[in-house]
Automatic annotation (TrEMBL):
It comes from Novosphingobium aromaticivorans (strain ATCC 700278 / DSM 12444 / CCUG 56034 / CIP 105152 / NBRC 16084 / F199). InterPro entries: Globin-like_sf (IPR009050), Globin/Proto (IPR012292). This is Globin. Gene3D superfamilies: Globins (1.10.490.10). GO terms for molecular function: heme binding; oxygen binding.
Length: 139
């Protein structure tokens, strides 16, 4: 899969959407995990300490996507390590990574409400597609 061009615009749009969500005083973690676990209840047992791991995972997704939008060189190496680590959690299917990214973006869109724009959607999706390509190579 070809790597999409990185633009400062994606990072700016992503940050703008997060500022909208923060301005609405929304915590991303509970609705993201409610959405994800509703779609995949079989995954709940893989989170040994939900009080910590839910927030950690959400932060890692957000941080990684933002870093990718800035073309940070460490992202691919970290994703290889994450995939290897997640293999130890019991056979996580490749499609599940895609699902997580899709649920994350859908959660952001819901939380931003009517202020979520096509520019926001494109920026997050472009970086999620790039990240999934890295995951796919490492998987």
């Amino acid at each position: 899969m070809a790597t999409m061009a990185v633009t400062v615009g994606d990072h700016d749009a992503m940050m703008e959407s997060l500022e909208i969500i923060a301005g609405r005083d929304h915590d991303i973690v509970p609705p993201f995990f409610a959405r994800f676990l509703s779609a995949h209840p079989e995954e709940e047992d893989k989170f040994f300490n939900p009080a910590t791991s839910y927030g950690t995972m959400t932060n890692e997704i957000m941080t990684t996507l933002l870093a990718l939008a800035n073309d940070e060189p460490w992202v691919e190496m970290v994703m290889r390590m994450q995939v290897l680590t997640h293999h130890g959690y019991g056979g996580i299917e490749l499609q599940r990574y895609r699902d997580v990214l899709d649920h994350f973006i859908a959660t952001l869109a819901d939380l931003a409400g009517d202020e979520w724009s096509p520019v926001h959607a494109h920026a997050w999706q472009a970086q999620a597609d790039r990240l999934f390509a890295m995951i796919e190579r490492a998987w």
